[in-house]
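The instructor's notes for this session suggest beginning with a concrete chain rather than abstract definitions. Hand out the sequence below and ask the class to guess, before any prediction is shown, which regions might be ordered.
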Amino acid sequence: MTQVLNPPLPLARPAAGPAPFGRTAAVFSFTALLATGQLYGLIPLVDAMAERWHTTPAAVTWLMTVYGFGYAAGFLLFGPLSDRYGRRRVIVTGVAGAAVLTAALAAAPGFGVALALRVAQGMAMGAFPPVAMAYVGERIEPRRRLVTVTAMTTGFLAAAAIAQVAAQAVAGYGWRWFFVAGAALFALAAVALHRVMLPDAPDAGRSPLDAYRAMPSLLVSRDLRLIYAAVPTVLTGFVAVFTGLQLTGVTGLLGLRASGLPVILAVPFLMPLLARVNAPLRAGLALALAGAAALLTGLLTPGTAGLAVLLMLLTAGVAVAAPSLIDTIGARAGAARGPASSLFTALLFVGASLGPQLAGALTGGGLAPLSYALAALFGAGALLLALTARSASQAA
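After discussion, reveal the predicted structure:
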């Protein structure tokens, strides 16, 4: 039985009528692609940036890690603030701020300045994911919510392929062009978001502290604690595997980076069929698939073609697990959907922040040690979700 939080947290007062499904899904997916593209896009650039700033590629991976930590902090900050000041206002302000900070990164004079700007850039972009998920829960028709969230998740994950391929393409002109292009696209996204999102009336009587106070209760909730514990495993493994490929110098990197894209794009179309499976069980099985692919990568030491197939399987597991987890959390959080979404996205990208450091620590002896560690990590997440599905079944 779903645990009811007391007192319930009211949502911002929405304007009448549902949001346009197609345009909202398209613009939100595009923005999601840009947001996580700033994380993944640095992977092909670490060598060039290390050479420019006279440091090591492993040290440059901290530019990904601090972006992820800033991103996660932004989720916790802006999700509750959007209850008070409005979803559209918070999202548009955050994305516009990210455009300015990304332009500043293109002119960063040194590694230390770049680190500080990356934290700020991540925090600004942290205004988008949790607020967008809360907006979808309030404004999109119920029958289209899962598809919309899956489309957004597809944008987040597709960045792993698209941003890396794009960054590799511009690397020959200089890594700074990656940030110049990113700044222009963030500005475009801010305009599109302002146009497509419905205006909302902020709740003047609502304090953001209400949502912050609810977060500890959500983390220890009987219905949610095991799910939240599993969330960081999703992107820790996903980011770590691509960072590991870069650091170990595996051949055929361009094709490997693009190999998961067809799978990611197919998942939103398959989700209505997959939704027939209980959401926690669906997420657990997906993580088990990702873990099996990681294990086989270490055991078989496959060639480029075989590695591409295994990466497709791992990507499929991650692409199904992420929307299944937010579907479960949103359903179980009830009136606390806003802070619950903030916690979910924060934990998801805390995991993404740890991925580059895990890869840097375990790839000294090749890709196999990292593969075994990721198999164990995904397996732990699958076990936690299996226990959640079992307890839910027993309660029913």
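Then share the key points. The chain is about 80% helix and 0% strand. The CA atoms of residues 297 and 307 lie 7 Å apart.
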